[in-house]
Amino acid sequence: MSRVNVMQPWLGREEVAALSEVISSGWIAQGPRVAAFEADFARMQQAEHAVAVSSCTAALHLALKVAGVRLGDEVVVPSFSFIATANAPTYVGAQPVFADVDPVTGNLTARTVEKVLSERTRAVIAVDQGGVPVALDELRALCDPRGIVVIEDAACGAGSTYLERPVGAGAEIAVWSFHPRKIITTGEGGMITTAHADWADRARRLREHSMSVSAADRHGSTLAQLEEYTEIGFNYRMTDLQAAVGIVQLGRLPEIIERRRQFAEVYTKYINDIDGLRAVADPSGGTTNFQSYWIEVGDPYPLDRDDLLAHLASLDISARRGIMTAHRQPAYAHQGLGPGSLPVSEHLSDNTLILPLFHEMSVGEQARVISALLTGSGDKP
What we know:
This protein has helices spanning 13-25, 32-44, 56-66, 84-91, 110-114, 136-143, 197-206, 215-219, 240-271, 305-314, 343-351, 363-376; strands at 49-53, 74-78, 95-99, 121-127, 149-153, 161-162, 165-166, 173-177, 190-194, 277-279, 286-287, 293-297, 320-321, 352-355. By secondary structure, it is an alpha/beta fold. The protein folds into two domains: 13-250, Aspartate Aminotransferase, domain 2 (3-Layer(aba) Sandwich); 253-376, Aspartate Aminotransferase, domain 1, CATH 3.90.1150.10. Helix 2 (32-44) packs parallel to helix 9, helix 3 (56-66) crosses helix 7 and helix 9 (240-271) crosses helix 12 (363-376). Its cofactor is pyridoxal 5'-phosphate. One of its GO terms (molecular function) is transaminase activity. Pfam families: DegT_DnrJ_EryC1. InterPro entries: DegT/StrS_aminotransferase, PyrdxlP-dep_Trfase, PyrdxlP-dep_Trfase_major, PyrdxlP-dep_Trfase_small.
């Protein structure tokens, strides 16, 4: 039997053709394909402005910059997230403040955020964890009157919906990832979407060293205009090579979501009948893209989370531990949050795992995973 991977990007001849076209054009750095990708992404996500960058972490950094987060501010973040969510505030000199999450969705809620707000809170980074849409309206109802910016970390969110719109559509500013583990990929890459034209304009300057004239415009002119550097900027550009792949991937998105949700429905049908296992599901008011199909392992399932991971691995099935908790990492030990500080986040991190799910997964591969879950419970497949 071949290994069942936890995730594989769906790439094909169309992406190869798009790359070949860019290479043949002679323009491979940030240029017309990046602009086209931004326009296509903004249209699909119902956003007014989109700015492509080199990664979602870069997008988070720039989102905090343009939203006015500064040295000494506090930014509320979930610990139950990839560590980049907590790292980004430190890039602008702010203090990440960890909040707990909902035990069902794994997302921040207005209740968990309100507990850690202070006079220094300037922003909240709300993650659509694993593609499960965060209750953005509730967070904005809490934060907007206080002048606190809610930044939606939709790294995993492409194709998910909230209140019958794409996630991120109701955010002042949102960020996205195109890492290979995500629903659509450009290899590496990220995007900022925002309702504010001035925030988008500043992000475009900041992503290329804060030049007053874009590199594309300078290189497109026979006599290049002399540029100025208006503030300290960064090299966060996306290339046309990446954007060409992204345009093709974006066209695949509806089909990818449909197939992932079909696989998720099959998983859920079986998992709901296994005592001690709980499957991630659509939250109230939204639909998830199942970027990560995660399950919680508890009594009376005979195996704990780590034993179940080992059982799956023995059958050549690659699963992954649940989402990390950043506050328990050495980088954030200085905050002094001991065991039990964020009980829900810690419980979910210690008792969840991510099952294989990808577009080109076969029915037989999924059947192997389900069979392994059943044998782990002591039942016959």
